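User: I'm writing a tutorial on reading structure tokens. Could you give me a worked example: one chain, its sequence, then its tokens, then a sentence or two explaining what the tokens reveal?
Assistant: Sure. Here is the example chain.
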Amino acid sequence: MSPVAQGRAGRRAAPWGRAVRGLAGPLAVVDLDAFEANAADLLARAGGLPLRLASKSVRVRALLDRALAAGFRSVMAYSLAEALWLADQGVEDVLVGYPTVDRPALARLAADPDARQAITVMIDDVSHVALLERAFMRSGVAGGPPIQVCIDVDASLRLGVGSLSAHLGVRRSGLRHPEEVVRLARATERTGRLRVRGVMFYEAQVAGVPDAGPRGARSPLVQVMKGLSLRELSRRRPAVVAALEEHLGRDVLVNGGGTGSLQQTATDPTITELTAGSGLLCPTLFDRYEAFTSRPAAFFGLDVVRRPTPRLATVFGGGYIASGPPGTDRLPRPVDGSRLLGSEGAGEVQTPLRYPPRRTGPAVGSRVWMRHAKAGELMERFDHVHLVRDDRVIETVPTYRGEGQNFG
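And here are its predicted structure tokens:
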């Protein structure tokens, strides 16, 4: 997002800022106009393919419901315990995006035929198969459907060979080639207790890497990397899917994409569904993409408690730092043009902010609005979030944390 756009985001905060003026900070709000516009944009970019909602990027059940009502078809959970909880709340199709070794949750899944129908677990190793088989045998429930699994296939880009090779993308599955995927599928369906529902390819080096640098300049190297990644996947992904479907004798679900890569991934005819989540809230890490317009929807407000100098204002709280490699891009960002101090950053209890020359900082008792670097992680800091439209609070709803749910 350009500095001008950031200024617009700051001014947009004013109407709903008035809506929560009488409430103590720190507090979190979601701008429903921006959220709904973002949902419509994601659905349009999916090009008619079913769109699965990545719950880790939201972590508020009321917002999951709003996205599903807007047209998202299903949910990708980030833990099996979460998937079981969502299924209990009525979500009918939950794909767990990561493998699990949570034995109590596996036992619950195996013992509940309804949960087996609603939930698909992720695997990429025969060890995962062994855990699922053991849970099924110990459940004592012979009837009902098999446990559904999805095979995670590495979608990263690898260049070169041997010591000169480079891995571009996240470190997920160790499976890359058709014969490896078929081998795991054969082991999975050996006893009939488990059934392969599909495969997932998450191209994080395309979906999660901004097109422009911090100053807004387009990065040619990023464009080259993304182009190479998409071309390589356009050859390898169909080969994996064709081999798997030939082995199984049936069509399979093929999941891919992310907020930053929906349009590109949707062009692959092999793909049967896409996943996105962060684009609903548009945190700061999603400001510099060419494929879509970032409409910030999630903000948190911190109250000024000190004025060390005319250009400094200290707010209460603020140490909401995003996961990933340490760096300034993981820090929260004020929307009013102030900056965190390099010597203190975002504090555990208080955060000092420096204002530009010839500008006086806000008075004690004022509120400063900020944005998180990631989407759902912000909600782990709050029990409730205020859903606002213009200058009104439409609804105050619990986050996962507010519902007493902690999935790691």
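What the tokens reveal: The two ends are 30 Å apart (CA to CA). Confidence is low (pLDDT under 50) at residues 1-13.
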